[in-house]
Design brief:
The protein is built from 24 helices and 4 strands. By secondary structure, it is mainly α. Among the domains are: 33 residues, no CATH class; 68 residues, no CATH class. The strands form 2 sheets. The protein has a two-stranded antiparallel ribbon. A two-stranded antiparallel ribbon has the order 3-4.
């Protein structure tokens, strides 16, 4: 077991846990979380009261409607093919294009709705660690709506990740083998007896369970034969194993020989010791920092193996450890765009984002839900920050704090065209007036610039800043105070604080 944190439990530590195991919170949320005590706070994250179905899926994504839509599209495609008979080559091309464009338009609209649904869920959930783990699994078993094309399959995969958020890593890996979105994304459905496709075999070992160097190319080739015959059936929306397309002959994988199918390969993978260390390290780096001691990974891998690969005990050990609250861990991570946006909205007490803001901001900052760049997922840490994205973060903070009249250019500055998606709104957030500064900075507090600054420092940073930075904020607030410290000056002070390197860390 990792060394445990002390019995003392500060409000700053509570805020740190809420930031890392979730997406931050407002002052009232942090204080209520702190009042639970360290152990009960961790328990509340791992065993939340909120039901998994607390946020109903869009109507088109519900199982019965989704199946009806899949069947309808199949019928339309068959009807289109029948209607091509007797037409000229030019007419056939036009009919095909019109049918494809119709489906593409529907998919783009549903993709935006799916992204909005998940973003709102992350913002409003009372089970933040479950959503954080759903995001982790989405990055780990990365699939993209750009290739999958069917938003409903991405949403159903999202629900799969949520159900397995704290459950068995081995069970989730078996489920991913039968997941329609993954089947389409890695071309597993094109892998047939005599013509195996190596994509899933390679990624399940290299990226999902073992890591590079812990298998041989022969293992990949043999496993690819085992992963033949898995096909997505659009009549029932499920992946089935077509044994006529499966290579039933013997394969030798990790030194063992048998007529393995795909699920057998995954069982063989989890007979190795490596998956426990592999996923323990990745979860540690996601929640703590990127340079874990090998002894810490040894301890976590042992915990995971003894728990039969259940993730909950691993998370509990991390969040109750002294290392999680050590100086090297506090405010040492660069916020991902989703973390940045959700935390910013929570800290500004914004329950309903301005229209168009979530997708526009995601596109501009480089992390779009359901659209990781490749099968390896997103690059994290330093990769989130460059000159352009840092300036965009400052501009987006300006838009939220000052409203569309003052900061509206932040929403219109760049219409990013993303393949497979509708473009961001040209002027999203029009009419946004900013947050309620009566809640964020009550007027009596504004009479004391130092007190106001200290209150905002805790709200935005949950810990002390260097004296020089704090002093500059107090000097700014004092200079702006005048006869009365209005909402306009408060907004400018908040924007100044949010446009600092310190705010990019959590």
């Amino acid at each position: 077991m990792l060394p445990k944190a002390s019995d003392s439990w500060t409000v700053n530590e509570a805020a740190h846990l809420l930031n890392r195991a979730g997406f931050g919170g407002g002052l009232d949320e942090i204080r209520a979380f702190h009042a639970l005590g360290r152990v009960k706070a961790v328990d509340s994250l791992i065993t939340p009261d909120e039901a998994e179905n607390a946020f109903p899926l869009p109507e088109w994504a519900r199982e019965e409607q989704a199946l009806a839509e899949l069947r309808s599209r199949n019928d339309q495609i068959r009807e289109m093919r029948r209607s091509l008979r007797g037409h000229t080559t030019e007419e056939m091309g036009r009919i095909r294009r019109e049918t494809i464009q119709k489906f593409q338009k529907e998919n783009r609209q549903q993709a935006l709705e799916a992204q909005g649904w998940w973003f709102r869920r992350i913002l409003k959930t009372k089970a933040p660690l479950r959503e954080k783990m759903t995001l982790f699994w989405h990055d780990h078993f990365a699939t993209s709506i750009q290739k999958v094309k069917e938003p409903v399959l991405m949403l159903h995969q999202n629900e799969l990740f949520r159900r397995h958020a704290f459950g068995g890593f081995r069970d989730l890996t078996q489920a991913i083998l039968m997941d329609p979105a993954m089947t389409l994304y890695l071309d597993t459905q094109n892998s047939k007896k005599g013509k195996p496709n190596e994509n899933f075999a390679r990624e399940v070992m290299e990226l999902f369970t073992l890591g590079e160097g812990n298998y041989t190319e022969q293992d990949i080739r043999e496993a690819a034969r085992a992963f033949t015959g898995y096909q997505f059936d659009r009549r029932n929306g499920k992946v089935t194993h077509n044994r006529r397309q499966w290579d039933e002959t013997d394969k030798t994988i990790f030194g063992k020989t048998g007529p393995y199918a795909g699920n057998d390969v995954i069982k063989l993978i989890f007979e190795q010791s490596r998956p426990a260390r592999f996923i323990s390290r990745k979860i540690w780096e996601f929640f703590v920092h990127e340079q874990p001691a090998e002894a810490a990974i040894d301890s976590l891998a042992d915990t995971l193996a003894r728990a039969d690969y259940q993730i909950a005990p691993l998370l509990r050990e991390i969040f109750l450890s002294s290392e999680f609250y050590a100086e090297a861990s506090i405010r040492s991570q660069i916020k991902s765009p989703i973390q940045f946006l959700i935390q910013l909205l929570k800290q500004l007490e914004i329950d309903e984002p301005p229209a168009g803001f979530p997708i526009t901001a995601q596109q501009q900052l480089g992390q779009i839900l359901f659209l990781p760049p490749n099968v390896a997922g997103w690059d994290w840490g330093q990769a989130w920050i460059n000159t352009n994205t840092l300036l965009t973060r400052y501009n987006l903070a300006g838009f939220l704090t000052k409203g569309s009249d003052e900061g509206g250019k932040a929403m219109a500055m760049e219409r990013v065209k993303t393949p497979g998606m509708a473009p961001a709104p040209r002027r999203g957030g029009r009419g946004w007036n900013g947050p309620d500064y009566g809640e964020i900075a009550p007027r009596p507090l504004r009479e004391n610039p130092a007190g106001l600054v200290d209150s905002l420092i805790f709200r935005f940073f949950q810990g002390p800043l260097p004296d020089k930075a704090r002093g500059s904020f107090i000097e700014y607030a004092t200079a702006k105070k005048g006869v009365i410290f209005t909402d306009k000056e408060t907004a400018e002070l908040c924007h100044l604080m949010l446009s600092t390197p310190y705010y990019q860390l959590c």
